[in-house]
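Is zinc ion placement plausible here? Inputs below.
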Amino acid sequence: MFSPRFEQLVQALRTLPSVGPKSAQRMALHLVMKNREGAFQLAHALHEAATYIQSCHVCHSLSEDEICEICASPRRDDTVLCVVESPADVMAIEQSAGFNGKYYVLGGHLSPLDGIGPEEIGIPALIQRLKQGQVQEVILATNATIEGQATAHYILEACKTLPVSMTRIAQGVPQGGELEYVDSHTLSQALHHRMQLK
Amino acid sequence: MFSPRFEQLVQALRTLPSVGPKSAQRMALHLVMKNREGAFQLAHALHEAATYIQSCHVCHSLSEDEICEICASPRRDDTVLCVVESPADVMAIEQSAGFNGKYYVLGGHLSPLDGIGPEEIGIPALIQRLKQGQVQEVILATNATIEGQATAHYILEACKTLPVSMTRIAQGVPQGGELEYVDSHTLSQALHHRMQLK
Ligand SMILES: [Zn+2]
Ligand SMILES: [Zn+2]
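Reply from A.M.:
I modeled the complex. Tokens:
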């Protein structure tokens, strides 16, 4: 259609998550016909991001420097370490603005069938870090999925002998959640982990 | 979040049609974490398309050359000219594979309140082309919207004295459309324009 370069643009847009052939075509037409300046800007932003964004050497989150802003910040609490599966989780927690400690990004969860063991998600390095003694509490904030639970459980066992407090993010009914629409597994967990009020 | 370049990428992705803040963030994370090669390819494709794709000098559709493949093709019928609103319509008709004539892209429809008159959508140039005498039939394939209908009607009037057959794409019940779900305006049009079978 039209030109090889148009076709290449449609194909390249299709590699974006949840962009099908129709929306890729609509995006390409929009950029070429109505927002050519936007096309150049997006090209530049992609090139810059793909060139300069790396993994933080300390927490494995995303950063433009060897050490990310959070790890480098003297205003963040060094004694509390939140362990998450991915940089997207760091982003979500930061946007919720309820946490002032530091992070450790595993980059996935344990998945023996895919050959992803403790080594692949940086658990030995996490234990090394805990042995340095600065961290007093580890918050296990892996996903509330079967894999995330298993990964949290593995870390808990691996840190058994370390003098560090280990906690897990609360699981229960989401804010605003109406009980009749909450799935039964969540509901039974919420009952089991009920909180003492008085 | 993370880095200025990540933030710039999220902002640039948001200029794409129907991409909100959440999906822009998801796309940026996907590109940076899982498909950096794809990020470079998309950057390249955007830059190439925005640099080299232009309007065909004859039909005003999209092309990498001064004259597009369809206009330049000796195998396409020069005597039938299909008038559409946008290159997206050319694409849709070509994908339906039922047309072997040539196109004329208006680049919009008449919209007096927005200052878009006949000149702005190339109607005088269309009439000039028809006066050359090669075209025997003009198919008015503007949208079946109020504006598209008005634009088709204007062209019909403007070409009244030219020795050219003027047709309008059929309007009616879409293929597979169940009558009870078709809107009443479409249904009344479909009845009014009923076809003689026998
Ligand atoms: Zn870091
Ligand atoms: Zn052309």
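Short version: Residues B 56, 58-59, 61, 67-68, 70-71 surround zinc ion (ligand 2) (CB under 6 Å).
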